[in-house]
Amino acid sequence: MALLHKLASFTSLPSPFTTTTTNNNHRSLKPYHPISSLNCTTSSTSSPFTEKHSTERYQRDQWLYNNQTMSSCPVPSDSGSIREDDIALQLPELKKLLQVLKLKRESEGKCSGGKCPPGNVYLVGTGPGDPELLTLKAVRVMKSADLLLYDRLVSNDVLDLVGPDAKLLYVGKTAGYHSRTQEEIHELLLSFAEAGATVVRLKGGDPLVFGRGGEEMDFLQQQGIQVKVIPGITAASGIAAELGIPLTHRGISISVRFLTGHSRKGGSDPLFVAENAADPDSTLVVYMGLSTLPSLAQKLMHHSLSPQTPAAAIERGTTPQQRIVFAELKDLAEKITSAGLVSPTLIIIGKVVKLSPFWPVSTKEKSCLMQAL
């Protein structure tokens, strides 16, 4: 319940108007647009994932936005105001949902003295984007949940598998915009679990591979909430398999290393591990590494990894919108820029990349490589 107290300033439904201050210090009224982060334009090349501007997000979450219209969609420059507007609109409905869940548990005889036993929280990995890569267990849990909190990299095709009675709440993060802080996500999970709800936390890939699932699990377990983890196919495995890239291969790669392109403030900068990562007999997979790749590539080559090392960058892997750039390490960053790849993009570096049937080399060259093993 801590989140509801922390955000007490947002406990009532917002006014249809907000105030602004002009240059001459006169206060004026302007229309309030709680769904102003919605992008009204869509195209066949739009992201399959639940971006903050996703029309599908608001259609699936309309229980939170049912008093608003989607006829006008101005996009404000202040992303902080988007987040505050969203929270202001969501909190009253979240409170109502908590009360409904409590009454439901009481009517089922599961509560005593007004106190309900805690519900379960499931951390569910949804894989790299293709809904057919979900596990049967993940689908079963998704269909039985009371509330699902889902990330940006959970595809809309996956959300279509959620049970009709479940409520969906977007808690995704993207560069420059966090719809919820990590601490608020923790408190939401705790509040609904304490109300006896079955809560599912949907994460792209695997929840325990760069998914902050360990942090959420640790927080909830310290509060006495049972947490169950349902693994998902992490992007490295799913996307490599899609491209026919063996992450390990006898005689070529004896190990594989997953590396994040970003680090928590105060943590180890991924660029400083380049010395240990520059192993010609290993495969390096970089998550969330678009912005740091130019520096990382230079440091890998500085630490003796060949500039001719095969590499690939895959945007939106396993989805119909998948785009791929193949290049030698020395040219990869430039080719990514030329192709205009955007997040989410996975980067695979190592000699195994050349074994992909999509690698732009002749069959004769590939045959020579295999015979050399």
Report on the structure:
The chain is of the alpha/beta class. About 30% of the residues lie in helices and about 15% in strands. The protein has helices spanning about 1-5, 55-60, 80-105, 135-145, 155-160, 180-195, 215-220, 235-245, 275, 295-300, 330-340, 365-370, and strands at about 15-20, 25-30, 120-125, 145-150, 165-170, 175, 175-180, 200-205, 225-230, 255-260, 280-285, 310-315, 325-330, 345-350. The strands form 4 sheets. A 5-stranded parallel sheet has the order 5-4-8-3-9, with helices on both faces. The chain is elongated and about 70 Å long. The protein starts with a helix and ends with a helix. Residues about 5-45 and about 65-75 have low confidence and may be disordered.
Write the layout of secondary structure elements.
Blueprint: H1 2-6, E1 17-21, E2 27-31, H2 55-60, H3 79-107, E3 121-125, H4 136-144, E4 147-150, H5 156-159, E5 167-170, E6 173-174, E7 177-178, H6 182-194, E8 199-203, H7 213-222, E9 227-230, H8 235-243, E10 255-260, H9 274-277, E11 282-287, H10 293-302, E12 310-315, E13 323-328, H11 329-339, E14 345-349, H12 363-371
Family: Belongs to the precorrin methyltransferase family.
EC number: 2.1.1.107
Domain Tetrapyrrole methylase: 121-333
